[in-house]
Design brief:
The protein has 22 helices and 37 strands. By secondary structure, it is of the alpha+beta class. GO terms for molecular function: odorant binding.
Length: about 900
């Protein structure tokens, strides 16, 4: 016996003497409470195991219900209750407390639970506290329930003794022995036991309460306490599990104990034991194999285990205080909570009428080839069962939502800035707009309160594939390459798992991979990427290095997220009217439609033949082989204004443009370009736009060119145009920007010269030319790169070849953050940065220009050449300021001068 136990023994003797002298305490060996008192002191000094009772002495011990003296107090916070001599105790199995018709309760379970409660008390350092009114809480279940308990519930913070006094004996904590000798703990009144309630695995427990009267209150501070209702806490949690693993080393199981086996139904490997052990011992043996005790995080994995029919331990536990009420379960081996959705599924549980006791706090799984005979069951953690070990999966453990990204109502702030939002069936998807590593992608989705993209089954993959049906490069508005949450890190090659909020989840075997994938190229491709393909394949999976940069993608259960509105453009199809063209595809009587001009890289028509409303005007431009003009940039508006001023008054009037905010009062859109307005690029008439006026026109008069709004039903002239045809769409776009900014062709070639560009001095006009190119390509606006469009250009020019794609995304990541006060300078610096990091990719983006549209042959045979009329000093009449001729044979030249030739 060590010195601590000797001191403990001496203390007991001194206490006994003090009791007889001061009449403060009375300890009786015949009183169960006095036994608990001595055990508390011994445990405090000598450790818990020395307090364990002999099970032989406890066997068949009962507590009579008709004794005239007070009954021994059962522990209050984890399942004990005091019984009144005048109250009948209900018959049945309630939480492992066996009760007979005669009102007797076996001591075996009571004693075991008491010892656990004493251990909790020693840990907490309790104080004897008896309140005037203390709520007693009972829980139970019916025949179909899964758990019962009998408890007197009190808050640990105010009722920390965890046991109560008896007639003729007072139980005390060690701290009380050191308190004032004048403070006494009074004797309590008897309690009445209420009818016990029921609850099911998927329901919260119902709480019934009775109150206990007491004559006084005693605490360290001797304070008065109010009535408190606290549900009984669970006494088993993952701390017990984890402590066992830390303090109990073990050797690896021998070959006779079990082996790695292969599940043919889902093509996964598990260690399956042949020996039966307790739950914690099973976890310890899995740890020795560098594996985890089984978690069953999906119905797919439950079916996967059918290859090994038996009953096996899992690491599932009812976790934490009040777990029966909260129905909170955890996978102790991985530290994740069990999904509440999974817990609520009938198929997750084995169909049984058995009623488990409160001691059955661990989960085992019954596996079977018959789906009706499989599922999770409750078991006592000390039962001996075989077990299954899983390979570890290196999923991130922390997934934290970032509150700063949401407004007080819980709505995501500026949601459109994160990418494209799509609703498909029961999910809302976010296809993001930034390239990042696999781990950063996972963290980004967590910050948004979402899961990283995962695919539950082939049907979900088909739903995403349907997005690609009928899509073209010009109509596809997302990117093509996204991260998923899947990884195999820590597991054998090819054994993939989704990293979901409730832990690693089995990877469905019937998803569509790219041909030859996964291939673990280079031996380090441990994460899965998802790719949209604009052909019959639709979507595919490949494995990639987790450090690669791909675009993040998230999903969540479908929610009504307010989507950014987009103005509607009626009659999006633009059809030419073949009946008004000749055999050479030239307009018949083209001079009758209005004034034609060639400038700014485009064919422009100031349509004045007749006035039309906005919708009809748009259709009329299309019928002529043109589109209604968009004034999307300040450079284009400035260039057109030069033509307007030069050839006034033929260009004066009000002319419909393709801008509208129909269906979206908060934002205008250029329908011909399918692009939103960029306000800094616009020059509005004073007081415009006007609320309620939904269509945009060009007001051209007195040398001023401004944008204004009007009712779409008003009838006005039209402004139509077409990008002048060139050798390629890229050249056509360059010509337009070159004319706008007066850039000669040799300077354009200079921009693509890798050697010369880096060291040359670039003029302001040439910098603005670069902005114009980026703007027309749809990759630059408001002084920065447009994320999705720029990334899509990189995907297209690299043909999504992994190494080149990684280089392009890395260059974008480094260069996209450049922003200076002058937009033309910003465009130049971004271009220069990209040219240094990925010259081939940048050059190919400019050359290929996948987004260049609206290019075609002029619908008229000749462009007009306008000349100022000459006047002879002998002619008294004045010419019109701008007579013009068409380049046709001289005999057919037509001139106008007040109806006569000039």
């Amino acid at each position: 016996m060590n010195i601590c136990c000797v001191i403990s023994f001496i203390s007991l003797v001194l206490i006994a003497v003090g009791q007889s002298q001061a009449k403060l305490f009375e300890i009786s060996n015949k009183s169960p409470s006095s036994k608990l008192t001595r055990r508390i002191i011994i445990v405090k000094c000598c450790g818990f195991k020395r307090c364990l009772p002999s099970r032989a002495n406890l066997k068949n011990r009962t507590i009579p219900t008709t004794s005239k003296r007070s009954k021994p107090s059962q522990f209050t916070e984890s399942g004990f209750a005091s019984f009144s001599s005048n109250e009948a105790i209900p018959t049945g199995n309630y939480g492992g407390l066996k009760q007979t018709a005669a009102g007797e309760s076996t001591m075996e379970t009571l004693e075991n639970d008491a010892l656990k409660e004493i251990e909790d008390f020693i840990t907490d350092g309790g104080v004897v506290t008896s309140t005037k009114t203390t709520t007693t809480t009972f829980r139970g279940n019916d025949k179909k329930g899964t758990r019962n308990s009998v408890s007197v519930a009190s808050s640990k913070s105010i009722f920390s003794t965890k046991y109560e006094e008896t007639s003729g004996a007072t139980a005390v904590a060690p701290e009380i022995l050191r308190s004032s000798p004048t403070e006494t703990a009074p004797k309590s009144e008897m309690m009445a036991l209420s009818t016990l309630p029921t609850f099911f695995p998927t329901e919260a427990a119902t709480i019934f309460s009775t109150t206990v009267a007491s004559s006084s209150t005693m605490t360290r501070a001797t304070t008065s306490l109010k009535t408190t209702t606290t549900p009984a806490p669970c006494f088993l949690n993952c701390s017990d599990f984890n402590d066992f693993l830390l303090r109990m080393p073990t050797q690896k199981p021998s070959q006779s104990d079990g082996s790695i086996q292969y599940s043919t139904s889902c093509k996964r490997q598990y260690y399956v034991s042949k020996t039966a052990v307790s739950r914690n011992e099973a976890a310890l043996r899995c740890k020795a194999l560098d594996m985890n005790l089984l978690t069953v995080t999906s119905l797919e994995e439950l079916n996967c285990l059918s290859s090994f029919p038996d009953t096996f331990w899992t690491s599932g536990s009812m976790e934490g205080k009040n777990c029966g009420l909260e129905k909170r379960f955890s996978w102790c081996s991985t530290g994740y909570d069990i999904s509440p959705t999974l817990i609520s599924m009938e198929k997750f549980w084995l169909r049984t009428d058995a009623t488990p006791s409160t001691l059955e706090r661990c989960l085992a799984v019954v596996t079977s080839i018959n789906p009706l005979n499989q599922g999770m069951i409750y078991r006592n953690c000390d039962d001996a069962l075989p077990y299954i070990c899983q390979f570890n999966v290196d999923c991130p453990k922390q997934c934290q939502k970032n509150p700063s990204l949401f407004d007080p109502a819980g709505n995501l702030i500026d949601q459109s800035s994160y990418g494209v939002w799509i609703d498909i069936e029961s999910y809302t998807y976010l296809l993001g707009n930034k390239p990042m590593s696999w781990l950063s992608s996972w963290q980004q989705c967590c910050a948004l309160g979402m899961e990283t993209l995962n695919i539950d089954n082939a049907a979900e993959q088909l739903g995403l594939t349907n997005l690609t049906f009928g899509a073209t490069l010009n109509t596809w508005k997302m990117n093509f390459n996204y991260w998923t949450s899947a990884t195999r890190k820590g597991s054998p090659v090819g054994q993939w798992s989704w990293c979901e909020p409730y832990g690693p989840t089995i990877f469905p075997p019937n998803l569509t991979w790219q041909g030859g994938q996964p291939d673990n190229n280079g031996g380090n491709e441990s994460c899965v990427h998802y790719r949209f393909v604009l052909n019959s394949t639709g979507t595919i999976l490949t494995d990639r290095n987790c450090a690669n940069k791909l675009i993040f993608a998230c999903k969540t259960r479908r929610v009504e997220i307010p989507k950014p509105c987009i103005a509607s453009c009626p009659g999006k199809s633009c059809r030419r009217d073949a009946t008004i063209f000749d055999v050479d595809n030239k307009l018949i009587d083209y001079t009758t439609y209005g004034e034609w001009f060639d400038g700014c890289g485009r064919t422009n028509l100031f349509y004045t033949k007749n006035k039309l409303n906005w919708t009809s005007g748009r259709e009329q431009c299309c019928a002529l082989g043109l589109t209604m003009t968009s004034m999307e940039s300040a450079g284009k508006l400035s260039c057109l204004s030069k033509t307007v001023i030069k050839f006034a008054p033929l260009t004066y009037g009000d002319f419909w443009l393709s801008g509208t905010n129909l269906g979206c009062p908060s934002g205008f859109r250029w329908c011909s370009l399918d692009r939103d307005f960029i306000n800094p690029e616009l020059r509005w008439k004073t007081g415009h736009p006007v609320e309620g006026l939904n269509c945009v026109y060009l007001e051209s008069r007195n040398g001023s060119v401004l944008l204004a709004t009007a009712d779409c039903a008003e009838e006005k002239n039209l402004l139509c145009d077409l990008r002048r045809k060139a050798a390629s769409s890229q050249i056509a776009m360059q010509n337009e920007c070159a004319e706008i900014w007066n850039i000669p062709s040799d300077q354009i070639d200079f921009l693509l010269n890798t050697t010369a560009f880096g060291s040359a001095t670039i003029s302001q006009n040439l910098k603005c030319f670069l902005k114009c190119i980026g703007f027309d390509m749809g990759v630059f606006k408001l002084g920065k790169l447009i994320d999705i469009d720029t990334l899509r250009q990189i995907e297209l020019v690299t043909q999504e070849e992994p190494v080149k794609l990684e280089q392009g995304f890395a260059a974008y990541d480094e260069c996209s953050g450049i922003k200076l006060d002058d937009e033309c300078v910003t465009a130049h610096e971004i271009y220069k940065c990209g040219f240094e990091k990925a010259p081939t990719i940048v050059t190919n983006i400019v050359k290929n220009n996948y987004d260049a549209t609206n290019m075609g042959s002029s619908p008229i045979p000749f462009y007009p050449v306008r000349r100022t009329c000459w006047l002879s000093k002998f002619v008294s009449l004045r010419c019109k300021p701008n007579c013009y001729r068409f380049d046709q044979p001289v005999g057919k030249r037509r001139h106008w001068f007040n109806g006569d030739s000039c």
